[in-house]
Amino acid sequence: MANTFTNGRRYHCLAAAALLTVLSLGLIPNVSAEQAPAPPPPTCGSDSHGGCHNRAEALKLKLIAIAAILVTSMIGVGLPLFSRDVPVLKPDGKVFVIIKAFASGVILATGYMHVMPDSFDDLRSMCLPEVPWRKFPFTTFVAMLSAIITLMVDSYAMAYYKKINAEMIGDGGANSQAKDAVVGLEQGGTNPHAHCGGGGAIEGAKAQLLRHRVVAQVLELGIVVHSVVIGLGLGASDNPCTIRPLIAALCFHQMFEGMGLGGCILQAEFGLKLKLIMAFFFSATTPFGIALGIGLSNVYSESSPAALIVEGLLNASSAGLLNYMALVDLLAADFLGTRLQGDMKLQTWAYVAVLCGAGLMSLMAKWA
């Protein structure tokens, strides 16, 4: 009897323990799930300041950013323009070729590592409707169209030039003003091997010079659009923790990008006035964007659907333009040209410079 009672108690104890184990296995996940709430949805149309929001401190940093970026941009774009005074840095020298290859790598990485990812982030944001923004790759589509349009501008500009040039040749001596214009182009003094754009298929120094000018102006257009968007985002932010590292990154970004643009402006042989205007526009666009962002900080929100769409489409357009210009008008034109094709050692160093420029600019993508 006692053994039966003892066995019964043991059975009940084991059954109770098994029941508690089953219940605990079922309840523990529920308790843990209750203790770990789901992440909140993104705040759209209003800025989420987090724990680092200080409007007064952010304004001081923005004013510092305006001055610092303006100065570094002027240094970057100005260095190539004054390189004619330094014999080793003349456009027909090997050092200039290597520096230009480095700057071309910077521009290539700007399009792929800075501008295009920003466009992806904007146009695939959770703040936008799933249809159509996350159902169709608008970034790559707009970048593709932008590259095609850039090619059209290149092609039509050169075709128009060749037509005008043929008409001037056919006029004989009738149009003296046209002849003077051609002579002025010929006196530009560019080296036919020192390419800023293609030109191997287009004969004559005049056509090469015009090619340099088209490339310089189109390249500046793409850089200016991107610079304004960057400055607008920085100027609208009231987060000092974000602004501090961004200032240093943008200073390096603008300096290296300015070196690439300055090299093209130099080879375009513009007059002094136009050189200064182009250098000023490049240097002032990011500070202008910051100032605009400060003025609109009360009404502008980076996470609003309208801002995301506009910035995303502008960044995609700029990415397509910069990628085309870097690959076709800068890198391919130089590396497939007679200058580098005839000097394998210089070509190797130029490739190293491209990789260094692209790698350094890719590293900057961690902060800007």
UniProtKB/TrEMBL annotation:
Statement: the UniProt record of this protein carries the keyword DNA damage: no
GO cellular-component term (any): plasma membrane
Superkingdom assignment: Eukaryota
Name of a matching Pfam family: Zip
Region forming the signal peptide: 1-33
Transmembrane segments: 63-83, 95-116, 136-159, 214-234, 278-300, 312-336, 348-367
GO molecular function: zinc ion transmembrane transporter activity
Topology term for the membrane: Multi-pass membrane protein
Subcellular localization: Membrane
Keyword vocabulary terms for this entry: Ion transport, Membrane, Signal, Transmembrane, Transmembrane helix, Transport
Family stated for the protein in its record: Belongs to the ZIP transporter (TC 2.A.5) family.
Name of the featured protein: Fe(2+) transport protein 1-like
Gene source species: Rhodamnia argentea
Organism classification: Eukaryota, Viridiplantae, Streptophyta, Embryophyta, Tracheophyta
Gene expressing this chain: LOC115754064
